[in-house]
Specification:
Layout lengths: L1 H4 L4 E3 L8 H13 L2 E3 L5 E4 L2 E6 L14 E6 L2 E5 L5 H10 L7 E3 L11 H7 L3 E4 L12 H9 L3 E4 H4 L2 E5 L5 E5 L6 E2 L16
Parallel strand pairs: 1-2, 6-7, 7-8, 8-9
Antiparallel strand pairs: 3-4, 4-5, 5-6, 10-11, 11-12
C-alpha cells in the first residue's frame, strides 16, 4: 500500500529472500514503483536535517529475525534506535562491531520478547523511552513482563502498541520531544537537555 500510494525513491531490506506471498507482492511493488533497491550495507542516509545510520545484519545467518536491519535515527541532539525483529544474537553482534550510543528512544526488539533484550543492550542504549510494537492478544505471549520490568528499572518509560495504540514521537533538534499515543488525550512531555521537562501538552487528535 505504501509503495502504491507514495513516491518512494529508495527501498531497503535485509537482502534475505523469503517465501511468503507478502514478500513476493512487496518485491513486485518495488519493481513497479521504480524505487532503487538498497542492500543493508553500512551507510548513512541523509533526509533533510535527519540522518539514518544503517546497522547491517550479521553475515550468513539465514534467519530472518537475526537478519533484521538496524536503523539509528539522528536529528540534532535526538537519537532513536530501531531494531526490527532482532534477537540477542544480532544485538550482541552490533554491540561488538558497531558504536551503539545512548539514545533517547529505543524500539524494543522482537515485540518485547524475552530473546529480544539483554542487560548489555539496555545498558548500552539506556533510553528515556522504550516502545514495544506488539499485536493485541498475540499467541506468542509478547511482550514479556520481565522485559518490560527490565526497561522500566533502567529508567525508561515503556509504551506498547497493544495498549497505547499508535505511538508518535515529535522531536526538536535540541533533543526535546513529545510522545503522543492514540489512546491518550494528553501528550507526555519528554526531557529537555539537562533533564528539565517540557511544559508542552498536545492532544493527538
Amino acid at each position: 500500500a505504501v509503495l502504491g500510494g507514495t513516491v518512494v525513491r529508495f527501498y531497503l531490506d535485509n537482502g534475505l529472500p523469503h517465501t511468503t506471498a507478502t514478500y513476493q507482492r512487496t518485491i513486485q511493488a518495488v519493481t513497479a514503483s521504480g524505487a532503487q533497491y538498497l542492500r543493508p550495507t553500512a551507510r548513512t542516509i541523509s533526509l533533510g536535517s535527519a540522518r539514518l545510520r544503517v546497522l547491517p545484519p550479521p553475515p550468513n545467518i539465514g534467519d530472518q529475525n537475526n537478519s533484521s536491519v538496524g536503523i539509528l535515527v539522528q536529528y540534532g541532539k535526538f537519537q532513536a534506535l530501531l531494531t526490527g525483529d532482532s534477537e540477542q544474537l544480532e544485538l550482541q553482534y552490533w554491540l561488538e562491531r558497531d558504536s551503539i550510543p545512548r539514545v533517547t528512544v529505543v524500539k524494543v526488539a522482537h515485540h518485547g520478547s524475552r530473546n529480544g533484550t539483554s542487560p548489555e543492550w539496555i545498558e548500552a542504549t539506556h533510553p528515556q523511552v522504550a516502545v514495544i510494537s506488539v499485536g493485541t492478544g498475540n499467541t506468542y505471549g509478547h511482550p514479556s513482563a520481565e522485559v518490560i520490568e527490565e526497561w522500566e528499572n533502567a529508567g525508561a518509560t515503556v509504551y506498547r502498541t497493544d495498549q497505547d495504540g499508535a505511538v508518535i514521537i515529535q522531536v526538536k533538534r535540541d533533543g526535546s520531544y513529545i510522545v503522543l499515543n492514540q489512546r491518550s488525550s494528553v501528550a507526555n512531555p519528554g526531557a529537555m537537555p539537562g533533564g528539565e521537562p517540557t511544559n508542552t501538552q498536545v492532544s493527538p487528535g
